[in-house]
Amino acid sequence: MKVTLDGVPVMNGAGTVNAEALNASKAVVSLNGEKSAPRQRVTRTLNVSVIGTGYVGLVTGAILADQGSNVICVDNNPAKLEVIERGESPIYEPGLDKIIQSALRAGRLKTSGDLAAAVENSDVVYIAVGTPPSADGTPDLTAVIQVVNQIAPAIKKHITLVTKSTVPVGTGDLIENTLQDLGVDPNLVDVVSNPEFLREGSAVYDTFNPDRIVVGVNRPGAEIKLLELYGRYGCPILVTNRTSAELIKYASNSFLAVKISFINAISRICEQSGADVAEVAKGMGLDSRIGKQFLNAGLGWGGSCFPKDVQGLLKCAETTGYDFTMLKSAEDINNDQTSHFMSRLRDQLGTFEGKTIALLGLAFKPNTDDIRDAKALEIIDLLKAGGAKIRAYDPVAMPNMMEVHPDIEYKSGGQETVEGADAVILVTEWEEFKWLDFDLTASTMKGDLLFDGRRAFRREDVEKSGLRYFTIGV
Ligand SMILES: NC(=O)c1ccc[n+]([C@@H]2O[C@H](COP(=O)([O-])OP(=O)(O)OC[C@H]3O[C@@H](n4cnc5c(N)ncnc54)[C@H](O)[C@@H]3O)[C@@H](O)[C@H]2O)c1
């Protein structure tokens, strides 16, 4: 399958783009002279259900409603739905509440706990429930299959059933077979893979400005309703087969994770050799074949996606009989990165026992309240095991962390958190921490150690105040 530079799908070998079914506005010729299918225009209002109103589902549903579709967001957590109905976002995601409010006002966004009723009236049904890793790393598809079982009796007319959840290769086939076993007429359902690439913290921006859209189909024309929904985007739309689409998501996240692990491995060499990883990354990133993104050395990758998707791809490789040693190494490097950083802190302190450690930031990255697989969790475990007293502050993630660690001391601002601390660790590089007053910090701390896990501060700014500055890769 080819896509032109301006995002128009070109007929592939399997003929997956049905040009006739698209409304022509202009035919486009790609740079290599091939004629593309005509560009899609949105001509009708589609009814859409989004099952699972989390970071992915709610952003997807709210923005589709904002763009003119009639959307019902379904979730089995009524508390979340109540919050959305009030015009608020149950998750912290910049800009999302405003979109929810305007879509509610326009009457195009509704919420429901009644999955069957939502599906009965839908043209397109997105599955956006969680797929957490099970104990052995295999993605747990319990919620996805539960949703499929609930959807089946409600399918009375054709729907495009879209997996937006990150699901292992072959899940589309599994869903199709499950529906068939439940007696659903295969002609009434197209099971389509449409992996999501948004980033928490910039999910709204990313959804309005995708780099690419991937649509995986197993039947010619199955992509049509999605092309109608996505026709307004100027990005490449890759229509491919379903298993390739499923693998694209795992391969993309794993590749980015490998890139981060690579620079973190380089950071270890820097620490021993006198090189500075920031300079090395800068020099590497100026090569357009490498690019500067994802070359920031730090505490390593965390969050709800990279760790689980790396594990998912490793499992997928295992089932195909391939030993993906490179990816395993990337995971090993990542697993070691935070404990190595913390061992440097312990070396400076002598012991964690009885020391007061201030944590700035708890979320797995800035601009989100998500703490799933956050590096802060690893740091808190190490500090607790060592007998340290922990005080912490995060602009939005504290309520989530309080549920996991109610016993640490939470503060209401960065400056207050560092008071009386033996050492400060910058865990999440929230913008507001860049304004930390180092002189005040030095005068109110008990100790003088600032450990920067994200290379967010400038050494000279910190050291001017008399604090001792430690960071990664130098
Ligand atoms: N979070 C991200 O940045 C991101 C990015 C790309 C892809 N993904 C993938 O998208 C999927 C969803 O991720 P998320 O972060 O939005 O998860 P989430 O946990 O924030 O949201 C999942 C939602 O599904 C609901 N749910 C679970 N079971 C349900 C059921 N049977 N019926 C109705 N609702 C149900 C939950 O209550 C929750 O609101 C995952 O597969 C994830 O890997 C996530």
List keywords for this structure.
six-stranded parallel sheet, alpha/beta, Rossmann fold, 17 helices, 16 strands, 474 residues, binds nicotinamide-adenine-dinucleotide, 14% strand
What share of the residues lie within helices?
25-40%
Going across the major beta sheet, what is the strand order?
5-4-3-6-7-8
Q: What is the typical, i.e. mean, pLDDT?
A: 91
Give the full name of the CATH homologous superfamily of the largest domain: NAD(P)-binding Rossmann-like Domain
Total helical elements? 17
Given helix and strand content, the structural type is alpha/beta
Span of the ends, CA to CA: 45 Å
> Uncertain regions: pLDDT < 50 for 5+ in a row?
1-40
What can be said about the biggest beta sheet?
6 strands, parallel
Look at the structure and give the CATH class of the largest domain: Alpha Beta
Query: What small-molecule ligands were found?
Result: nicotinamide-adenine-dinucleotide
CATH topology name of the largest domain, in short, is Rossmann fold
Topology of helices and strands:
Layout: E1 2-3, E2 9-10, E3 47-51, H1 55-66, E4 70-74, H2 78-85, H3 96-105, E5 109-112, H4 115-120, E6 124-127, H5 142-151, E7 159-163, H6 171-181, E8 189-193, H7 203-208, E9 213-217, H8 224-230, E10 237-241, H9 242-273, H10 277-285, H11 306-319, H12 325-349, E11 356-360, H13 375-385, E12 389-393, H14 398-404, E13 409-410, H15 414-418, E14 423-426, H16 438-444, E15 449-452, H17 459-464, E16 468-471
Parallel strand pairs: 3-4, 3-6, 4-5, 6-7, 7-8, 9-10, 11-12, 11-14, 12-13, 14-15, 15-16
Antiparallel strand pairs: 1-2
Helix pairs in contact: 1-3, 9-11, 9-12
The protein binds nicotinamide-adenine-dinucleotide (NAD).
Nicotinamide-adenine-dinucleotide (NAD) binds near residues 54 and 56.
